[in-house]
Design a protein that fits this description.
- This protein has 543 residues and is of the alpha/beta class.
- It folds into three domains: 182 residues, 3-Layer(bba) Sandwich (FAD/NAD(P)-binding domain), CATH 3.50.50.60; 111 residues, FAD/NAD(P)-binding domain (3-Layer(bba) Sandwich); 205 residues, Glutaredoxin (3-Layer(aba) Sandwich).
- The strands form five sheets. Strands 19-18-20-21-23-22-24-25 form an eight-stranded mixed β-sheet. Strands 1, 2, 3, 4, 5, 6 and 17 form a seven-stranded mixed β-sheet that branches.
- β12 and β13 form a beta hairpin.
- The protein is globular, with a radius of gyration of 24 Å.
- The protein starts with a strand and ends with a helix.
Length: 543
C-alpha cells in the first residue's frame, strides 16, 4: 500500500466519487477513494427518501450510497477514512497527504462536494450552536420535544424538515419563495405532514436572546407585516435550522487549479480541470443542476477520460502495470486486525516517543473502556507508551495533566512533559482520526501549519484552555479537534481538551450547547462550527 502508485485517487465518496470508482474499477484501474466521513454518500446520505433516481423505485440516500460503495469495492476500489491535509499536483505523479499518510496517483478526481451556506441575518452568527444549526443529523436530537424552524424552500430544506419531525414537537418551514423549489412529491409530503407548518413569502428578520435563543422575528413579505415567535415557558428555547444551499469544499485546491469566483472548480465537458491529470465531478464543479443523477454522470464521464489519460501517462513514464492488490477498507471500528496492521504502519512515521496517560475511575464505565482501548494501541509502536493509574493513586500526575473529568487520556512528549492535549471520551466513531493525528502530531508534527503562523503561535505567553465539544456522530468535529490540538503542539501554554458532550450533560446544560463542534475558551467565549487552524488562532487572541 505505502509504495503503490494508484492510477486514480478520488477525493470524496459521494455519488460522483463512487460512480467514478465503479467505472474506473471496471476498467481494471488501481483506485483509492478517500473519504473524511465514516459513512459514504456526501449530502445524499441524509436524504430519507430517493424516488427520482432511474431504475430505483424507492430508496433512502444512505442505502443507495452504500450500494454504490459495494459496487466500487467489487470492482477493486480501495477505501480509506481520512482527512486530506495537502495535495501536490505539480508532477506527472500527484501526491495526496492525508491523516493516514501520503498516497501517490497518476490522476486525481476532486469530488469533495459542498458545505452549508449561512444567510447573515442579525443573530445568526451569535446563536450558532445555541439554537441555530445547519445539520439536522448532527444536532436534531438536541431539540427533542421542542419547536424548530427550517429556513429554505429547496430539496434539502424539505427533506430536513421531515427528518426533524423525529425529534421536534413541531416544525415550521420559513420559505422566502412563494412555493417549494424541489420536486412536488417531496413538497407534498411536507405540506401534508401533521407536525409541519409552512409559511411561504416569509423571511427571518432577527434572532434575539442573551445566552441562548429566546425570540425570533419574521416578516411576511406579501403583507409586509412582522411577527415574532417565543417558546413556551416550559420549553425555554427553540431551534432554527438553515438549508439554503452549499459552498464548494475547495479551499485546499486554491492556487492549484482554476476556480470560479464562487469557489467552484472549472472543468470542460470531460470533467478536466486546467491541470493535466486532475479532474472534478459532482457538486464541487461549475454546473447548472446539482442532483444525484448528474453527479453520477459526472463521475462516469470523468472515469472514461481518466482511463485514456492514465494509459498515455504510464506509457510516457515507462510504468509497468501491476496486478491489483486485494481490496482494503480502513474503518474506525475498535480495533480489527486489519486496522491494527494499518495503524502499526502509520505509527512508523513517529519520530519521538509519546506517552498516553489515563487515570481510571472505577465507578465510570467509559473510563474503564478507554483503558482497555489504550492497551490495544500499546502494541502498535515502540514509540507509543501507556501509563495507567487509578484515580487518587498518583495525585502529582493528576495535577500535572489537570485530571478533572473522566474518562481521560492525556498526551506526554518524549520528555514526559504534558503536551496540553487531552481526550475526555472514547476516541471512536469519527474521533479515531483525530486521536491518531494527535499521536502523530505530538511525535512528529506531521500536520502542516504555515511557518509564519507557527511563529505567531509560539509567541502566545498566556495560559489558554480550549474545550472542543464534540459528538461522535458529528463528521465535522474531528477536523476541528485536530486543528486546535495542532496549536497545542507548538505552544505548551495552550491546552486543548476533546470532550464528548454526550458524556458530560452538566457541561451541555451549563453552557446551553445545542450544536457541535463548539470551542470554548477559558470556560467563557464559545465559537461553533468548522474552524481552520487560522480561525482557532484568531479566537485564542481575541480579547
Amino acid at each position: 500500500m505505502k509504495n503503490t502508485i494508484y492510477d486514480l485517487i478520488i477525493i470524496g465518496a459521494g455519488p460522483a466519487g463512487l460512480s467514478a470508482g465503479i467505472y474506473a474499477g471496471r476498467a481494471k484501474q488501481k483506485i483509492l477513494i478517500i473519504e473524511k466521513e465514516k459513512i459514504v454518500g456526501g449530502q445524499i446520505k441524509t436524504t430519507n427518501e430517493v424516488v427520482n433516481y432511474p431504475g430505483i423505485l424507492v430508496s433512502n440516500g444512505e442505502s443507495l450510497a452504500q450500494m454504490m460503495k459495494e459496487q466500487a469495492k467489487n470492482f477493486g476500489a480501495e477505501f480509506i477514512n481520512a482527512f486530506v491535509l495537502d495535495i501536490d499536483l505539480s508532477g506527472d505523479i500527484k501526491k495526496v497527504e492525508t491523516s493516514l499518510g501520503e498516497y501517490s496517483g497518476t490522476s486525481i478526481l476532486i469530488a469533495t462536494g459542498g458545505s452549508p451556506r449561512s444567510l447573515g441575518f442579525p443573530g445568526e452568527e451569535k446563536f450558532k450552536g445555541r439554537g441555530v444549526g445547519y445539520c439536522a443529523t448532527c444536532d436534531g436530537e438536541f431539540f427533542t420535544n421542542l419547536e424548530v424552524f427550517v429556513v429554505g424552500a429547496g430539496f434539502a430544506a424539505a427533506e430536513e424538515a421531515i427528518f426533524l419531525t423525529r425529534f421536534a414537537k413541531k416544525v415550521t418551514v420559513i420559505a422566502r419563495e412563494p412555493a417549494f423549489t424541489c420536486a412536488e412529491t417531496i413538497a407534498d409530503k411536507v405540506l401534508t405532514h401533521p407536525k409541519i407548518e409552512v409559511k411561504f413569502n416569509t423571511e427571518v428578520v432577527e434572532l434575539i436572546g442573551e445566552t441562548h435563543l429566546e425570540k425570533a422575528i419574521f416578516i411576511d413579505n406579501i403583507e409586509n407585516k412582522k411577527w415574532e415567535f417565543k417558546p413556551l415557558p416550559e420549553d425555554g428555547m427553540f431551534g432554527v435550522f438553515i438549508f439554503v444551499g452549499y459552498k464548494p469544499e475547495t479551499d485546499i485546491f486554491k492556487g492549484k487549479i482554476t476556480l470560479n469566483p464562487q469557489g467552484y472548480v472549472e472543468t470542460d465537458e470531460n470533467m478536466k480541470t486546467n491541470v493535466p491529470g486532475v479532474y472534478a465531478a459532482g457538486d464541487v464543479r461549475v454546473k447548472t443542476l446539482r442532483q444525484v443523477v448528474t453527479a453520477v454522470s459526472d463521475g462516469a464521464i470523468a472515469a472514461i477520460d481518466i482511463e485514456k489519460y492514465v494509459t498515455e501517462t504510464k506509457e510516457k513514464l515507462g510504468m509497468i502495470d501491476e496486478k491489483p492488490e486485494k481490496t482494503l477498507e480502513i474503518s474506525e471500528s475498535f480495533l480489527t486486525d486489519e486496522m491494527k496492521s494499518k495503524l502499526a504502519e502509520i505509527f512508523k512515521k513517529m519520530e519521538n516517543e509519546v506517552t498516553l496517560v489515563t487515570i481510571i475511575d472505577n465507578s465510570n464505565e467509559s473510563s474503564l473502556k478507554l483503558a482497555n482501548i489504550l492497551k490495544e494501541f500499546h502494541s502498535l509502536s515502540d514509540h507509543l507508551k501507556i501509563i495507567e493509574k487509578l484515580k487518587g493513586e498518583d495525585l502529582e500526575l493528576e495535577r500535572k495533566i489537570n485530571a478533572d473529568k473522566y474518562p481521560i487520556v492525556a498526551f506526554l512528549d518524549e520528555k514526559l512533559e504534558y503536551t496540553g492535549i487531552k481526550f475526555h471520551g472514547i476516541p471512536g466513531g469519527h474521533e479515531l482520526n483525530s486521536f491518531v493525528m494527535a499521536i502523530l502530531n505530538c511525535s512528529s508534527g506531521i500536520q502542516k501549519i504555515d511557518e509564519n503562523l507557527k511563529e505567531e503561535v509560539k509567541k502566545i505567553n498566556k495560559l489558554v484552555n480550549l474545550k472542543v465539544l464534540v459528538s461522535l456522530s458529528c463528521h465535522i468535529c474531528p477536523e476541528v479537534v485536530m486543528n486546535a490540538q495542532r496549536l497545542a503542539v507548538e505552544n505548551k501554554n495552550i491546552e486543548v481538551e476533546m470532550i464528548d458532550i454526550n458524556l458530560f450533560p452538566d457541561i451541555k446544560a451549563k453552557y446551553k450547547i445545542m450544536s457541535v463542534p463548539a470551542i470554548m475558551k477559558n470556560d467563557g467565549d464559545i465559537i461553533f462550527g468548522a474552524k481552520k487552524i487560522e480561525d482557532i488562532f484568531k479566537f485564542i487572541n481575541k480579547n
